[in-house]
From TrEMBL:
<dbReference type="GO" id="GO:0036440">
    <property type="term" value="F:citrate synthase activity"/>
</dbReference>
<dbReference type="InterPro" id="IPR016143">
    <property type="entry name" value="Citrate_synth-like_sm_a-sub"/>
</dbReference>
<dbReference type="GO" id="GO:0005737">
    <property type="term" value="C:cytoplasm"/>
</dbReference>
<keyword id="KW-0472">Membrane</keyword>
<dbReference type="InterPro" id="IPR002020">
    <property type="entry name" value="Citrate_synthase"/>
</dbReference>
<keyword id="KW-0816">Tricarboxylic acid cycle</keyword>
<feature type="transmembrane region" description="Helical">
    <location>
        <begin position="337"/>
        <end position="360"/>
    </location>
</feature>
<keyword id="KW-0012">Acyltransferase</keyword>
<keyword id="KW-0812">Transmembrane</keyword>
<keyword id="KW-0808">Transferase</keyword>
<feature type="active site">
    <location>
        <position position="336"/>
    </location>
</feature>
<dbReference type="InterPro" id="IPR036969">
    <property type="entry name" value="Citrate_synthase_sf"/>
</dbReference>
<dbReference type="InterPro" id="IPR019810">
    <property type="entry name" value="Citrate_synthase_AS"/>
</dbReference>
<dbReference type="InterPro" id="IPR016142">
    <property type="entry name" value="Citrate_synth-like_lrg_a-sub"/>
</dbReference>
<protein>
    <recommendedName>
        <fullName>Citrate synthase</fullName>
    </recommendedName>
</protein>
<dbReference type="InterPro" id="IPR010953">
    <property type="entry name" value="Citrate_synthase_typ-I"/>
</dbReference>
<comment type="pathway">
    <text>Carbohydrate metabolism; tricarboxylic acid cycle; isocitrate from oxaloacetate: step 1/2.</text>
</comment>
Length: 401
């Protein structure tokens, strides 16, 4: 057995792998993906079973602790998370510094980074107790932070958490409730939302998770690391794809316009891509998209609503999956293709979609961060480069250039 790192160091060699398409950055026991078969397992459990049968709190416990909780453990964990849902009161002032039309993701990057200025008793990464409290705080406060970003954008007062409600019910109330009025959580919406959170909880070494790990590898505190993850998630090639996918479907409008967009997606001179299609790892149907498509039907049936955009999405999928371009390149719908349709039916504006993704992914990010911190093989992340600039040359004073 050759220690490849030592071999490379001794010989001065390294690999050139832009986009890390074939380089493992770490060992991890959290999430397994078989992209060819369309399989996603969290700690060994298939995502379909978790989405259908468990709750987001159970999945959060599973990702953090390695095993599904028994009833007592689940109750204890839920109560711990519940105790941490409040934000420091001065953070409300921080929100008021943003422009009213600020994108929620811009607000989330700032507010989550700012948590490190408020919770000094959970920033010592060498203390396991502090790491645990920081993890619980992040999971607990993300719904409050996201809901406040929404309230701020629509000019409504912030609502304090109501900890009698479930994690997801509480988030829905803080988002859509108004003061002095009773907010009744719709159990179908609550279940659908909880399922969406489960489907987004973790996805091994994606761009934002790798960002969290890279930031954390320098010893940065967990709040700063998660803020870095949020910033990376924002991009349209990653978490921003759910917003972009629904915008695209609305722009297409009716199924008769699909061929025009398919043609654009195939045109090498056009930068347009079908949003919500394709994945770095899945070269088969994204198992999360299967659950998501089913959930759209359930939500529409239960709420007795519909949206023509769903028909457009189904037809687009059918046409693309029978088109040689998409077949050859193994481009299938990913998790983001259908999620926006449900979120929109629930009442979220598209600008909130990626913030919801960030809320759910915080569980995976912080579980991965903890795994990294306790991994004895972990070093500061420090990729190398292939230098392509000029060779050494002498400085020329400005007047002689
Ligand atoms: N529409 C049209 N063509 C596509 C698409 C698409 N959505 N995705 C990939 N392709 C084509 C590329 O043009 C490329 O063609 P080429 O080989 O002829 O140059 C080929 O398929 C491979 O694409 P890459 O960009 O090299 O694949 P990569 O693994 O780097 O990118 C990505 C994956 C970013 C997800 C890409 O498929 C994409 O941009 N999809 C749309 C955005 C999206 O839905 N992102 C969400 C991802 S899931 C998530 O973050 C939760």
């Amino acid at each position: 057995v050759v220690d490849i790192r030592k071999f490379y160091a001794d010989t001065g060699m390294f690999t050139y792998d832009p986009g890390f398409t074939s380089t493992a950055s770490c060992e991890s026991a959290l999430t397994y993906i078989d992209g060819d078969e369309g399989v996603l397992l969290h700690r060994g459990y298939p995502i379909g079973q978790l989405a259908e049968q468990s709750s987001f709190m159970e999945v959060a416990y599973l990702l953090l602790n390695g095993e599904l909780p028994n009833q007592g453990e689940l109750d204890g964990f839920t109560s711990t998370i519940t105790r941490h849902t409040m934000l420091h009161e001065q953070l409300a002032t921080f929100y008021r510094g943003f422009r009213r039309d600020a994108h929620p993701m811009a607000v989330m990057c700032g507010v989550v980074g700012a948590l490190s200025a408020f919770y000094h008793d959970s920033t010592d990464i060498t203390d396991p107790q502090q790491r645990m409290i920081a993890s619980h705080r992040l999971i607990a406060k993300m719904p409050t932070i996201a809901a406040m970003a929404y309230k701020y954008s629509v000019g409504q007062p912030f609502l304090y958490p109501d900890n009698k409600l479930s994690y997801t019910g509480n988030f829905l109330r803080m988002t859509f409730g108004v003061p002095a009025e009773e907010y009744e959580v719709n159990p179908i919406v609550e279940r659908a939302m909880d399922r969406i959170f489960i489907l987004h909880a973790d996805h091994e070494q994606n761009a934002s998770t790798s960002t969290v790990r890279l930031a954390g590898s320098s010893g940065a505190n967990p709040f700063a690391c998660i803020a870095a993850g949020i910033a990376c998630l924002w991009g349209p090639a990653h978490g921003g794809a759910n917003e972009a996918a629904l915008n695209m479907l609305r722009e297409i409008g009716t199924p008769d316009r699909i061929p025009e967009y398919i043609a654009r997606a195939k045109d090498k001179n056009d930068p347009f891509r079908l949003m919500g299609f394709g994945h770095r790892v899945y070269k088969n149907y994204d198992p999360r998209a299967t659950v998501m498509q089913k959930t759209v039907r359930e939500v529409f049936d239960s709420l007795k609503v519909s949206d023509p955009v769903f028909e457009t999405a189904l037809r687009l999928e059918e046409i693309a999956l029978n088109d040689p371009y998409f077949v050859e390149k193994k481009l299938f719908p990913n998790v983001d293709f259908y999620s926006g349709i449900i979120l929109s039916a629930i009442g979220f504006p598209t600008t909130m979609f990626t913030a919801l993704f960030a809320l759910a992914r915080t569980v995976g990010w912080i579980a991965q961060w903890n795994e990294m911190i306790t991994d004895p093989a972990q070093k500061i992340g420090r990729p190398r480069q292939l230098y392509t600039g000029p060779t050494q040359r002498d400085y020329v004073p400005v007047g002689e250039r």
